[in-house]
């Protein structure tokens, strides 16, 4: 009798174990989804903000990417007062271009001449440009209203950049929507007095 009872209990335990629901499968980890970048502009060769595919309406979908270099072309004083977080400041008029920089030795910019045919001021101008604006990366450029960006893009095109990887995302003045509040540092009390120089380079 005892053996029969043990056998029945063992069978009951076995059947209960078989009927138990399987442990739920582990949920796959949520991988960050990168939105595919659109073509940079609606019209080939139009570097204005009006033709740009990324602007104040949708930039929030493309921030914080590892495959993008984010650059602000305004000067340091404006940048200190208000800027997008994680954007590097490269002052366009102070460091990159002045039409007279190649003839006026008091100027420090790396390029002079026309924007479409920039003249290298230093023997290392192209190397400096390639360091600041890496050719193997997608680059988002902004300034105050988008004008300096269009000028910068002419210089990049003249230096052989793949313009399908360069985006004019406009100017900070256009990013007034509240959805950008957490992405922007706003410190109007900061005033910076900057002396722009380039040292150790040989002029052409």
Q: How is this fold's topology laid out?
A:
Elements: H1 2-19, E1 68-72, H2 76-81, E2 82-84, E3 88-89, H3 92-96, E4 111-113, E5 118-120, H4 125-132, E6 138-143, H5 147-158, E7 166-171, E8 184-186
Parallel strand pairs: 1-3, 1-6, 6-7
Antiparallel strand pairs: 2-8, 4-5
Characterize the structure shown:
The protein has helices spanning 2-19, 76-81, 92-96, 125-132, 147-158; strands at residues 68-72, 82-84, 88-89, 111-113, 118-120, 138-143, 166-171, 184-186. The strands form three sheets. A four-stranded parallel beta sheet has the order 3-1-6-7, with helices on one face. The protein has a two-stranded antiparallel ribbon with strand order 2-8. 24% of the residues lie in helices and 15% in strands. The radius of gyration is 28 Å and the shape is globular. Helix 5 links the parallel strand 6 (138-143) and strand 7. It has a domain at 46-186: Oxidized Rhodanese, domain 1 (3-Layer(aba) Sandwich), CATH 3.40.250.
How is the biggest beta sheet arranged?
Answer: 4 strands, parallel
CATH superfamily of the domain at 46-186: Rhodanese-like domain
Task: Work out the number of β strands.
Answer: 8
**For the largest beta sheet, what order do the strands appear in spatially?**
3-1-6-7
Termini separation comes to: 107 Å
Q: Please tell me how large the radius of gyration is.
A: 28 Å
> What amount of the residues lies in strands?
15-25%
Number of helical stretches of at least 4 residues:
5
CATH C-level label of the domain at 46-186: Alpha Beta
The topology string of helices and strands comes to HEHEEHEEHEHEE
The low-confidence parts are 1-21, 27-32
């Amino acid at each position: 009798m005892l053996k029969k009872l043990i056998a029945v209990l063992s069978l009951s335990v076995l059947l209960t174990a078989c009927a138990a629901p399987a442990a739920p499968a582990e949920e796959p980890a949520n991988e960050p989804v990168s939105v595919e970048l659109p073509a940079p502009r609606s019209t080939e060769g139009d570097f204005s903000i009006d033709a740009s595919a990324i602007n104040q309406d949708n930039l929030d979908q493309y921030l914080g990417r590892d495959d993008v270099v984010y650059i602000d072309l305004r000067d340091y004083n404006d940048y200190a007062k208000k800027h997008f977080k994680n954007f590097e400041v490269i002052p366009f008029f102070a460091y990159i271009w002045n039409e007279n920089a190649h003839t006026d030795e008091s100027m420090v910019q790396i390029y002079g001449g026309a924007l479409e045919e920039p003249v290298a001021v230093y023997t290392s101008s192209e190397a400096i440009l390639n360091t600041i604006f890496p050719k193997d990366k997608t680059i988002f450029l902004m300034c105050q209203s988008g004008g300096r960006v269009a000028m910068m893009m002419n210089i990049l095109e003249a230096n052989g950049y793949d313009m399908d990887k360069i985006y004019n995302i406009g100017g900070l003045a256009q990013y007034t929507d509240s959805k950008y509040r957490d992405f922007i540092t706003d410190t109007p009390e900061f005033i910076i007095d900057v002396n722009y120089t380039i040292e150790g380079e040989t002029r052409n």
